[in-house]
Design a protein that fits this description.
This protein is mainly beta. It is built from 4 helices and 21 strands.
């Protein structure tokens, strides 16, 4: 390949068409009892690391502990089948109760990252998982993206060198993946907060992600709940301004009317962006890649009109009342709309 020592990420991954694993069989194993010359099996790996080597030949080393003549036979563990509905895919045993992690390690710590696929997202993937991630400082972003982002950051008092990007290449992965990437460029300590934004190449704006506020871990990493084909920007402070789109600003509230006859109803319509999930309480866990949102309604005069939990205003008596609608997010942000209603 001519890429000895190259990081398995970004452009380097595109040049890899295959790789080999060499395994030694135990010569006097019961597997060869009937004259077999080869043994077939399946290997499962929780951790795959890229390393540098000056040879492309397998190197075998004898271990200090030699296997016993008749190793203890263990019952064969059958792989766990994927839930019904998507035939043809079989999970290895450990995937049935956990989530697979793949750690890509590079000599340059700022280029290392860990990919975690939550079980809920793994179930959405019905083909080979092909994931390529590129991380680095803003000036390393490809194309004109770096110029767009560099123009936005100064308005929030952030230098380009104090922000970080994580790009997930476009692939056939249907579900979401969590990428833990270093934020060392910001020189932030463990427990510090960072904020994640998605770069929209069509509008040139940065969009707040669900659960945007993340904490820096002891290894200088911060987790990002991401998706295929997306570019994410990590900063040390919340962003604002005309080129920044917040989650709360995407939520829309409208009324089917402001005047109603006694005994009739008005419907309050709320449209949430795809990354917000309506919940009855902020203590309820939202799905992967989504953030909980709670809707609240109140009438200033319950004798004139009252509001149900589903946003239906029922006119009871003639008069005027003010209906207040609030959308509360798990991060503490609130959107409030007030509307005067007349009952005739």
């Amino acid at each position: 390949m001519g890429r000895s020592g190259a990081a398995l990420g970004g452009a380097a991954l595109k040049d890899i068409s295959s790789f080999g694993l060499y395994v030694n069989a135990i010569g006097d194993s019961p597997a060869f009892a009937n004259g077999e010359t080869m043994v077939n099996g399946t290997l499962y790996y929780d951790d795959i690391r890229a390393v540098s080597s000056d040879t492309d030949k397998p190197v075998f080393k004898e271990t200090e502990e030699k296997p016993s003549e008749k190793p203890e036979e263990k019952p064969t563990e059958k792989p766990t089948e994927k839930p019904a509905g998507k035939p043809g895919i079989v999970y290895p045993p450990y995937m049935a109760t956990s989530q697979p992690d793949v750690k890509m390690v590079n000599e340059d710590v700022s280029k290392s990252y860990t990919i975690t696929i939550p079980q809920s997202e793994l179930e959405k993937m019905d083909s080979d998982i092909d994931i390529s991630v590129n991380t680095g400082e803003i000036h390393e972003m490809p194309g004109n993206k770096k110029d767009k982002v560099t123009d936005i950051l100064p308005a929030n008092g952030i230098k380009a060198e104090d922000a970080y990007f994580v790009s997930i290449a476009e692939n056939n992965t249907k579900g979401g993946i969590k990428v833990s990437a270093p934020v060392a460029a910001q020189k932030l300590k463990k427990g510090s907060n960072v904020y994640v934004y998605s770069y929209n190449s069509k509008t040139g704006k940065l969009e707040e992600t669900a659960n945007s506020k993340r904490q820096v871990l002891s290894d200088g990493m911060a987790g990002i709940e991401g998706y295929s084909g997306k570019d994410y920007i990590v900063t040390g402070k919340e962003l604002s301004g005309k080129n920044v789109v917040t989650l709360i600003s995407k939520a829309k509230i409208s009324f089917s009317g402001t005047s109603v006859k006694k005994g009739s109803k008005i419907k309050i319509n709320i449209v949430l962006p795809s990354c917000l999930e309506a919940k009855t309480s902020l203590d309820k866990n939202a799905s992967y890649g989504k953030q909980a949102a709670v809707m609240q309604y109140k009438s200033s005069d319950a004798k004139v009109a009252k509001v149900s939990k589903d946003g239906t205003v029922k006119a009871l008596n003639k008069g005027k009342t003010k209906i207040t609608v609030k959308i509360k997010l798990a991060d503490g942000k609130v959107k409030t709309v007030k509307k005067n209603i007349t009952v005739k």
